[in-house]
């Protein structure tokens, strides 16, 4: 719905307007209506942002007029005047999308300053140092964000000045230093841009708003959105807000606060602040911040008011809050609140405790934890014995839990490229900034020299579930030589280190990791999710070990056992190669006889782990090339095993070569050519089930799944072989075992003819990896290389192999499900592609009425939670 109003005063907005005002804008409006001291301002809407892009990167006169009108109202509210030589109004221009994207977009502070207003400010506050400190900050931010003059340039100028003066931190520069610094900044700007720094506040304002709109589309924001499923059409809002100043001297300061500990979830205020500082100083780690307990001593009254507001905001928003505050001359202001990002451990503890405190219901608690986050809960910790033997070489702040070992890298690009080559890397930085996002994603662990628990590195790492140690000042990093020094010892790029994000300890070398222990909050929370959800969650597991793991994580059965994966082991692959290259039935039977006991043994192991839980076993499927011997060495070895000559075997291998193996002789096509393969596999499954049933008493009903079916007759052909073989074994062993035969729906033709296929198939499992590949018509082995271009050019916003394409592939699934049910009302329906563990795809499966999703063991809790959230959003249970 188009809205004709593009600008709202804080006093005109409320929390329900998040889509229009962005999270930050809506929360500023909400805090205003709660009577919390918030500097006033107005928000330019996300629709104005979309309009800006539609109008060709232009803020139209219509919107400009509205901005001016609201600025006039703000002048009335504050009693100050924008750009005036008397009591000038200074503002910040802040970005804020619907979902929080910390640090991904840009903010400008102290806007409205120029050579004239800075003098007025200095006089009116009787504080020259403060006025010029604000001005130099403004020039740097404006030049960087609006004019593309990188802030690094200005930092260098300032560092040089500090060096010349022999001082360490910015607060040691005095008024006259800052006046000179401003001059130097402006000179540099002029040299670089060929024009004076813009002094007209009106122009500053409109250009700043445009720049924030543009920052919605910067590369790091795009990467962040793709990682977090945020669509580009949401746009960002821009809030323009009266400045308050934490950099006025020693009774002023700025800080960030969490109402509970974002790392552990402990119900205790967690806050840091810096006196005589502004904006991002705390987060950027420019100086090491103070703990909030210090404020209680230094300014008890401010502290009292601060705690009152923190509690009010948490109770009001019914969640842990992440807040920004500033103290100006002893007066407290709040600048932001939002539901805080947190580690998964903290998320579970907070969700459970908020229910226990009576603040929220179980269903509300379920909606508070991001399913994707659960993934990181299951990631490894250090082996305690190895850890005890290791020596701590440095210690920093435990910023995000987990354990990591890897090779040291010093830039985000290095981390990314090493990771792509298959190395595990630890990214070591002085401090991270949003440009580092891709390197941070690639790293096992992130180690920074500067910054506190709320630094950029810490916040982002916690969000990603990556281990992080921040503020590790023991490290003397030399970015030029790509090395760091601890004491006398030098470590170079590529050296192994280990780090523990829960203790902050850094170790030399690689340390073995072990599976994590799952705590009580996880069990309670997941219990609630299980009570709520209607969609079952199974797992993709090919071995007894994976099956046991998945059962521990709550899997209700195996949705996909890929029988060829049982043969990837070095000693087994020879046997399957022997079968594949067999020239005739006799030699194939010899190979199959050797495979039978191995396969039966694996099935027995899986059935024993599962107990009464069901297992879908898929018959041999792989493109042949995955198993053929590749080099002459392998061919020689296999030939001698099989009593063939090298040349004979080489010729066979060459004759099996396919131009397009993904669409070649695979799946049920193999069983049509070589029925004896299906016979052997049927024997293995049925004999294993009879055996475990007899020994353990479990009521096992094997589910045999025929892959890559596109035509009901090919399914029927293979099914007849399965049924004949199975029935013979069952009757011979006087068993009353029941079993089912079904198929994968993974070829578009199968989806299109699902009503016919359901005549033979007792269940469908959507194999969405192949179905995606064949529906899009691009190979999943090759798509990676060109999909990059598609993301860059915004043709696609996500990888259809990770997140189900609901529009196209989803339509096939929904249609096939309906057609299948028409023929066979009780047909069992599931999905077993990678998508089974992706939250938005799980929601889709819930909505089209599938019975279960199946995903890798680590993803099982993710899917359980996503299924519960889907049920809450759109109930299926009566
Ligand atoms: P981000 O979304 O990256 O956190 P913000 O818009 O919150 O960016 O602003 C960056 C910093 O500037 C924050 O520390 C914030 O508190 C501070 N800030 C923003 N507006 C003002 C203001 N009007 N007065 C004082 N500080 C401000
Ligand atoms: Mg902020
Ligand atoms: Mg397949």
Brief overview:
The chain has 35 helices and 33 strands.
Properties at a glance:
single chain, 878 residues, alpha/beta, 8-stranded mixed β-sheet, 8-stranded parallel barrel, 35 helices, elongated, binds adenosine-5'-diphosphate, binds magnesium ion
Q: What does this entry look like structurally?
A:
With 878 residues, the chain is α/β, with parallel strands linked by helices. It is built from 35 helices and 33 strands. An eight-stranded mixed beta sheet has the order 14-24-23-16-17-18-19-15. Helix 6 packs antiparallel against helix 7 and helix 24 crosses helix 25. The longest helix is centred in the C-terminal third of the chain and has 26 residues. The two termini are 34 Å apart. The structure holds adenosine-5'-diphosphate and magnesium ion (MG) (2 copies). The site of one magnesium ion has 6 residues, from helix 31. The site of adenosine-5'-diphosphate (ADP) has 17 residues, from strand 5, strand 6, strand 7, strand 11 and strand 12.
């Amino acid at each position: 719905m188009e809205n004709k109003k593009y600008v709202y005063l804080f006093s005109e907005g409320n929390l329900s307007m998040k889509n229009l005002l962005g999270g930050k804008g809506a929360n500023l409006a909400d805090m205003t209506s709660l009577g919390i001291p918030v500097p006033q301002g107005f928000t330019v809407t996300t629709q104005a942002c979309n309009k800006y892009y539609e109008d060709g990167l232009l803020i139209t006169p219509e919107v400009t007029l509205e901005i001016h009108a609201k600025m006039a109202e703000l002048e009335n509210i504050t009693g100050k005047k924008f750009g005036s030589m008397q009591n000038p109004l200074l503002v910040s221009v802040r970005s804020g999308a619907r979902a929080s994207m910390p640090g991904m977009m840009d903010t400008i502070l102290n806007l409205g300053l120029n050579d004239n207003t800075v003098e007025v400010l200095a006089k009116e506050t009787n504080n020259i140092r403060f006025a010029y400190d604000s001005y130099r900050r403004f020039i740097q931010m404006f030049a960087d964000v609006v004019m593309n003059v990188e802030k690094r340039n200005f930092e260098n100028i300032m560092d040089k000045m500090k060096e010349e003066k022999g001082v360490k931190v910015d607060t040691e520069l005095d008024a006259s230093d800052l006046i000179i610094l401003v001059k130097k900044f402006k000179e540099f700007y002029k040299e670089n841009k060929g024009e004076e720094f813009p002094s007209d506040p009106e122009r500053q304002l409109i250009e700043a708003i445009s720049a924030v709109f543009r920052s919605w589309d910067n590369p790091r924001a795009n990467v962040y959105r793709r990682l977090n499923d945020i669509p580009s059409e949401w746009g960002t809002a821009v809030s323009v807000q009266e400045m308050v100043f934490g950099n006025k001297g020693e009774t002023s300061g700025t800080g960030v606060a969490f109402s509970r500990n974002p790392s552990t979830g402990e119900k205790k205020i967690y806050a840091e602040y810096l006196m005589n500082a502004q904006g991002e100083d705390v987060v950027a780690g420019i100086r090491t911040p103070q703990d909030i307990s210090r404020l209680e001593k230094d300014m008890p009254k401010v502290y009292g008011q601060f705690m009152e507001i923190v509690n009010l905001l948490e109770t009001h928003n019914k969640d842990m809050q992440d807040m920004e505050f500033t103290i100006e001359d002893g007066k407290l202001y709040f600048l932001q609140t939002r539901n805080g990002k947190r580690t998964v451990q903290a998320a579970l503890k907070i969700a459970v405790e908020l229910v226990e405190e009576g603040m929220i219901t179980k269903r509300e608690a379920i909606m508070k934890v991001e399913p994707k986050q659960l993934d990181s809960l299951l990631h490894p910790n250090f082996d305690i014995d190895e850890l005890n033997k290791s020596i701590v070489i440095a210690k920093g702040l435990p910023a995000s839990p987990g354990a990591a070992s890897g090779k040291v890298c010093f830039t985000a690009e290095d981390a990314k490229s090493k990771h792509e080559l298959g190395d595990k890397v630890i990214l070591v930085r002085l401090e991270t900034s949003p440009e580092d996002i891709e390197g941070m994603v690639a790293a096992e662990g992130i180690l920074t020299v500067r910054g506190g628990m709320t630094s950029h590195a810490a916040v982002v790492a916690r969000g990603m579930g990556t281990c992080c140690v921040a503020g590790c000042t023991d490290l003397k990093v030399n970015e030029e030589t790509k090395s760091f020094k601890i004491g006398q010892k030098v470590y170079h790029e590529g050296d192994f280190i280990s780090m523990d994000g829960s203790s902050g300890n850094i170790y030399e070398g690689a340390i073995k990791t072990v599976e994590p222990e799952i705590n009580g909050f996880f069990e309670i929370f997941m219990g609630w999710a299980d009570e709520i959800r209607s969609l079952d969650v199974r797992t993709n597991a090919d071995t007894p070990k994976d099956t046991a793991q998945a059962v521990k994580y709550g899997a209700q059965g195996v949705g996909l056992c890929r029988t060829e994966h049982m043969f990837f082991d070095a000693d087994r692959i020879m046997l399957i190669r022997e079968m594949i290259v067999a020239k005739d039935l006799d030699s194939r039977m010899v190979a199959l006889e050797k495979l039978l006991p191995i396969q039966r043994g694996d099935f027995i192991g899986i059935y024993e782990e599962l107990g009464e839980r069901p297992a879908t076993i898929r018959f041999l499927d792989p493109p042949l090339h995955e198993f053929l011997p590749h080099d002459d060495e392998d061919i020689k070895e296999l030939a001698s095993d099989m009593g063939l000559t090298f040349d004979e075997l080489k010729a066979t291998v060459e004759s099996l070569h396919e131009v397009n193996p993904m669409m070649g002789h695979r799946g049920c096509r193999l069983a049509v050519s070589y029925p004896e393969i299906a016979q052997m596999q049927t024997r293995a499954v049925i004999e294993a089930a009879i055996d475990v049933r007899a020994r353990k008493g479990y009521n096992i009903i094997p589910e045999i799944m025929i892959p890559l079916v596109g035509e009901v007759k090919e399914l029927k052909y293979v099914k007849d072989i399965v049924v004949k073989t199975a029935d013979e074994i069952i009757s011979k062993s006087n068993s009353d075992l029941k079993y089912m035969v079904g198929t994968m729906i993974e070829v578009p033709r199968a989806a299109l003819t699902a009503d016919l296929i359901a005549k033979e198939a007792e269940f469908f499992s959507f194999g969405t990896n192949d179905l995606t590949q064949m529906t899009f018509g691009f190979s999943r082995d090759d798509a990676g290389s060109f999909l990059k271009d598609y993301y860059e050019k915004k043709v696609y916003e996500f990888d259809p192999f990770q997140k189900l394409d609901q529009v196209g592939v989803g339509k096939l699934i929904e249609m096939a499900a309906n057609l299948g049910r028409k023929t066979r009302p009780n047909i069992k329906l599931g999905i077993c592609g990678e998508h089974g563990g992706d939250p938005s795809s799980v929601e889709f499966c819930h909505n089209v009425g599938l019975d279960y999703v199946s995903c890798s063991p680590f993803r099982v809790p993710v899917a359980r939670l996503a299924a519960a959230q889907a049920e809450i959003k759109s109930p299926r249970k009566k």
